[in-house]
Amino acid sequence: MKHLKMIFTYKILIKFMLLSMVVLTTGSCDRYKTVREKLNVAENLMNAHPDSALDILDNIPSAGINDREVAARYALLKSIALDKNYIDTTNFDVLQPAIDYYIKNGKPDEKLRTFYYQGRIYQNKGDDDSAMRSFMNGCDLRHGVTDSLLLAHTLVAQGTLYFKQYKINDFVHYNMEAAKLYKTIGKDILAIKSYTNALDGYVMQNNKPAADSLMSICVPMVKKNPEGEAFLFPSLLSYTVNFCSSDEIKEVLTEYQNMELTTDETMIFAEGYSKIGEYDKAMTLISNINPAENTWDSLKYASIKIDILERQGKYKEAFTLYRDYSATLEHYQKELLSQDLLFSDKKHQLEMKNLIEIQDRDRIIGGTLCGIFALFTLVGWLYYRGYRSKTKRILAEKENKNLRLEQENLRLEIDQLEGERDNLKELQKEQSELAKPIKDVIKSRLDLLNGLLAKEITNNDRYAEPYNKWIDTVRNDKKKFMDSTRLAFAASHPKFMEYLEQHGLSTDEINYLCLYAIGLRGKEVGEYIQMKRHYIVSHEIRKKLGVDEHETNIGPYIRRLMKGLE
After folding, report:
1. Would 147-243 and 493-566 be classified into the same CATH topology?
2. Mind giving me the DSSP string for 350-405?
3. How many other C-beta atoms can be found within 10 angstroms of the C-beta atom of residue 69?
4. Residues 463, 532: contact at Cβ < 8 Å?
5. What CATH code is assigned to 147-243?
6. Could you give the angle at which helices 96-105 and 108-125 cross, rounded to 10 degrees?
7. Alpha-carbon distance values, 369 to 355, 373, 380 (Å)
8. 163 and 203 in contact (C-beta within 8 Å)?
9. Is the pLDDT of residue 404 over 60?
10. How far is it, in rounded angstroms, from Cα 515 to Cα 566?
């Protein structure tokens, strides 16, 4: 007795501490400055102390919930707290902000929680079809969620709805899946509960081998977790009555006959007594039960009582009860068929199939568009390549054409240089009476021409070294170069020089024209002599020579004139 008082005192102390924590949490704005922090505290307390979590949530002012995400989280936590405190709600006033936000924007865990508690509210409303769809939507997320505990709860909820449809295979399947999840995360008591649900399904199917395999799992687990015996006992009792011998049934019934039994356990006891022939005990037990009409318990009650009456030979009473049983069963089946629950999984499968088809179609469309884009890209790339190739080809053709022109011009210039060289050689041989300055100019120019021609023929710059030195001299002493050029032309092309003199050209103007005669162009002549009157000089020379105003380039004209006067 003293031990019980100590336990009671301890429980009161714990409760007082929790209430104090709630008061401090909800009453102090300094400690939890934001709504988010209060929501964190409520979530941390949710599993161990859901009543305290609900108190915290109830004391959060609505004015502080002004964000969609915060409102969604508050709505979800409030719905969880109500459910864990066994406060059944039949409307979505609390949960709706979470549904509106998380179904579209939530992470897999947030979506699963929203679907699960949406299904719980539908169950409270009696809308099992909508509840099943919510649970199915939640289970579709199983590969992305981390909240294994809630996923297992969702599987159990689905299994319960399958049981109402007499879909025992599905009932067993979902409870087995849930049991494995519970066991993986260390929730052995919940695992035992789901395993025993599956065991009941195997007993209903009269599947003894499967039931034996589950018994071999459940019994060792209950030995390690004695509190799980409350879930195993009804299943063990049903297993014994359906699969064991009369002696084994009697032994179990005798062992537990003075135990306080639930309605379901009482009906199993009555069925057991009927099987071993103790009909009076069976009838006494079954007569003390008054199940609600049109429920699963009422059908099970009528089935067991009919069996007892038949074994007692009370066929008239058994027949009367059988008619009532048939009417109740028919009503139950009509009610089930009037709902969509029986076909909800088929509808869900069709919806998922349509969704997959839409996704496949979208993938095909996306792939086609990507293919078209890739094709356009390829065509554009090929066009660009072709355009570049064409441009390169045109440029190459132009370059080749320019190169050919340059080569032709070079050939002409070389021919001209060779002609000048030959004339100067002949002149050097034949006119020994020339003055020494002219002889020196001719010799110097022959040396330069020979070197320049050797360089062009052999493509060896070494031969052009004297020419390059001469160029430097030319740049430094323009007057000397122009005079030497004039003297060289006077010796090699006397008729040409006489023609210019006869037309009244001055020495500077003849020097100017000699630059054109050696192959320079108008721009090059202008750059060389650096005269502002360059174009005026050219105009005056044209007038003296009577050059046509359409002869825009005087260079070719002078070179043709010089060649024609040879």
Report:
1. no
2. HHHHHHHHHHHHHHHHHHHHHHHHHHHHHHHHHHHHHHHHHHHHHHHHHHHHHHHH
3. 14
4. no
5. 1.25.40
6. 140
7. 21, 6, 16
8. no
9. yes
10. 18
Greatest CA separation for the chain? 170
Three-state SS sequence of 492-514:
HCHHHHHHHHHCCCCHHHHHHHH
d(CA 94, CA 560): 107
DSSP per-residue letters across 451-472: HHHHHHHHT-GGGGHHHHHHHH
- The closest of 43, 23, 25, 21 to 34, measured between CA atoms, is 25
Token representation of residue 394: 């045109």
Do the Cβ atoms of 232 and 222 come closer than 8 Å?
A: yes
d(CA 231, CA 215): 12
pLDDT reading at 10 higher than 50: no
Handedness of CA 251, 256, 257, 261 (dihedral sign): negative
Alpha-carbon gap, residue 133 to 154, rounded angstroms: 11
Q: Using one digit for the tens of pLDDT, what is the confidence trace for 459-496?
A: 555 655 665 565 555 556 677 778 888 887 888 788 88
Residue 52 DSSP SS3: helix
Task: Tell me the C-alpha distance between 77 and 39, whole Å.
Answer: 8
**Could you state, in order of their start, the residue ranges of all structural domains in the chain?**
147-243, 493-566
Model confidence pLDDT, tens digit, residues 117-175: 999 999 999 888 899 999 999 999 989 999 999 999 999 999 999 888 888 999 999 99
Q: Which of 101, 52, 50, 49 is nearest to 75 (CA)?
A: 101
Gap between the Cα atoms of 319 and 323, Å rounded: 6
Length of the chain: 566
- Host H or E run for residue 56: helix 50-58
Alpha carbon distance 406, 412 (integer Å): 10
The residue among 69, 38, 71 whose CA lies nearest residue 54 is 38
pLDDT tens digit string along 354-396? Answer: 545 555 556 666 677 777 777 778 777 777 777 777 777 787 7
List the structure tokens of 75.
């709505």
In CATH, the architecture of 493-566 is Orthogonal Bundle (1.10)
Per-residue model confidence as pLDDT tens digits over 303-354: 888 888 888 888 888 788 778 777 766 666 666 555 555 455 555 555 555 5
Half-sphere exposure of 71 (CA within 13 A, CB side): 13
Residue whose C-alpha is closest to residue 172's, from 164, 180, 181, 163: 163
Q: Which helix (H) or strand (E) holds 184?
A: helix 168-184
SS (H, E, C) 208-233: HHHHHHHHHHHHHHHHHCHHHHHHHH
Q: Can you read off the two tokens belonging to residue 336?
A: 């089930």
- The letter for the amino acid at 455 is K
Distances (CA, A) of 378 to 10, 86, 349, 525: 79, 65, 42, 54
d(CA 431, CA 478): 28
Q: For residue 64, what is the DSSP state? A: G
pTM of the model: 0.56
